[in-house]
Amino acid sequence: MNNSTITKDAFNFLKELAKNNNKEWFLENKTTFKKHESDVKSFYENIQERLNTHDEIEKMKIFRIYRDVRFSKDKTPYKTHFAGSFSRLGSRLRGGYYLRIKPGETFVATGFWEPNKEDLFRIRKELEMDASEFRGIINKKLFKDIWGELQGDGVKTAPKGFDKEHQNIDLIKKKQFIFVRNFTDKEVLSNSFSEEVDKSFKAIRPYFDLMSDILTTNLNGESILD
């Protein structure tokens, strides 16, 4: 099993980086950064191992510390957090997991951040036809205790071709279908943090199972996979 904790030293490094977000300081402290980066990567690998006991993960991606400042007003060169994502296996398992570690702003997120045009239309048509199973899953107490409310941007009135007075228009308007759980610094630095992250990811499975079923079938429930 890989490293299962986030160290206070790693947190302190991110705090110092936030105060000294420039190339000179970073180069002077790059050896320290590489050590923390390695430890944090090991932590993410621990999360992947846990995920693979109850899901199928195709790949893990650790995001680079370097910021792309070409189109940003903020020209600071480095991110002040660690972040990584986990992609589920193949076309039949939809959804993904994300974890960001940052002092005061650590969170996990899951769901569908930017579904393509076809997937978004298919989800909306399903919700137009019947949203009872969808609502039943996201409104269960155990689910809500961990993940809270459905989040994500949406259109102001109704997508083209949909009735703005539809009973499920609150869901149909969504362009993103995501859930976010925030963690305190105390929780992040505890020995049980990796377990809590995994517990959160495990709790999202009924939602992923439903969405995977929706996105791999037509409105008649027939598979669209080869």
TrEMBL record:
The record ties this protein, via Pfam families, to: DUF2461 (PF09365)
Membrane spanning stretches: none
Q: Which domain of life is it from?
A: Bacteria
Tell me which InterPro entries the record gives: CHP02453, UCP028451
What name has this protein been given in UniProt? Answer: TIGR02453 family protein
State the organism named in the record.
Flagellimonas eckloniae
Which classification does the entry list for the species? Bacteria, Pseudomonadati, Bacteroidota, Flavobacteriia, Flavobacteriales
